[in-house]
């Protein structure tokens, strides 16, 4: 992606107005509020611009960076979503950050690490619902949704990458994007969803604190999604469940059915024609329509 910095020159009235609307993050205050002895977050850095926070933090993870490292960019020039799709947003219009986790050190078996992006989604959705006053929902496997003008729209995405014994989780959240700045008409932002606050500092603190709480509970139960409450929480907040969906699978295959459950491995279970239940572990999900639930 190639977002532009709208800060402008001293003589550019539009640039000055943009700065007032989109102030930079306060790295010192964020560190003071989040990096504490005994806490999950061990270091926090805010950079003006980078290609991809995930790419940068994966490199640091392989060089031995500690669990709890947080890298935040005011602007990403090569941000990535799933399947290497571009993530486009103007500078300081959202929250673009990555976190480094080493769950193996807490005894979590690798087969449960696939729950981490779902955990990040649950944590972010809950935190933003409270801090921004906006109802948020999860679209399996890695999208966050808000309602804008009566329509569900994606305003956030999550990307998890393995780096040896570490997992780097990147998150991009549209905060103050206006309608004319959206990368596609079906995207959304907290501002367009009438958030009570678009102040990025408290929003980021809320998200990171929520991730730390959920991650601590998940580790306490050695990554068990049932015992930690994660599986139930994800299902409760997942807008995909109870809908007729089309799963676009690797290799050009498709499956259509009702999304009926999230299983113990974090997979989406589809009830296809003939009553067959089929778990989907990877793919793009298209919401087709809601399925009436029996009382």
From TrEMBL:
Q: Which InterPro entries match?
A: aa-tRNA-synth_II/BPL/LPL, Biotin_CoA_COase_ligase, BPL_C, BPL_LPL_catalytic
What keywords does the record list, in alphabetical order? Answer: Biotin, Ligase
SUPFAM superfamilies given in the database record = Class II aaRS and biotin synthetases
Every copy of the BPL/LPL catalytic domain together lies at 43-219
Q: Which residue ranges are recorded for the region named Disordered? A: 1-22
Check the record and name the PROSITE patterns matching this protein.
Answer: BPL_LPL_CATALYTIC (PS51733)
Gene3D superfamilies in the cross-refs: 2.30.30.100, Bira Bifunctional Protein, Domain 2 (3.30.930.10)
What Enzyme Commission number(s) appear in the record?
6.3.4.15
What GO MF annotations does this protein's record show?
biotin--[biotin carboxyl-carrier protein] ligase activity
Q: Name it.
A: biotin--[biotin carboxyl-carrier protein] ligase
Q: Which organism is it from?
A: Streptomyces endocoffeicus
């Amino acid at each position: 992606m190639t977002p532009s910095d709208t800060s402008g020159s001293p003589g550019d009235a539009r640039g000055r107005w943009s700065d007032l609307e989109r102030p930079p993050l306060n790295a010192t205050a964020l560190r003071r509020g989040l990096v504490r002895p005994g806490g999950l977050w061990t270091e926090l850095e805010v950079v003006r611009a980078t290609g991809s926070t995930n790419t940068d933090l994966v490199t640091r993870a392989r060089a031995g960076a500690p669990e709890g490292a947080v890298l935040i960019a005011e602007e990403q020039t090569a941000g990535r979503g799933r399947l290497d799709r571009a993530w486009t947003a103007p500078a300081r219009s959202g929250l673009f950050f990555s976190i480094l986790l080493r769950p193996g050190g807490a005894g979590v078996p690798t087969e449960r690490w696939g729950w981490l992006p779902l955990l990040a989604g649950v944590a972010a959705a809950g935190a933003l619902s409270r801090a921004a006053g906006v109802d948020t929902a999860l679209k399996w496997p890695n999208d966050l949704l808000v309602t804008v003008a009566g329509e569900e729209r994606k305003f956030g995405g999550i990307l998890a990458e393995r780096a040896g014994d570490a997992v780097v989780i990147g998150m991009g959240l549209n905060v103050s994007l206006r309608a004319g700045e959206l990368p596609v008409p079906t995207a959304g932002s907290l501002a367009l969803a009438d958030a009570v606050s678009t102040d990025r500092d408290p929003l980021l603190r809320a998200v990171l604190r929520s991730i730390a709480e959920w991650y601590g509970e998940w580790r306490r139960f050695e990554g068990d999604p049932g015992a930690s409450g994660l599986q139930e929480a994800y299902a409760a907040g997942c807008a995909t469940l109870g809908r007729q969906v089309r799963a676009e699978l690797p290799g050009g295959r498709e499956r259509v059915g009702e999304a009926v459950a999230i299983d113990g491995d974090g997979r989406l279970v589809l009830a296809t024609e003939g009553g067959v239940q089929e778990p989907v572990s990877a793919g793009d999900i298209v919401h087709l329509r809601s399925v009436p639930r029996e009382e």
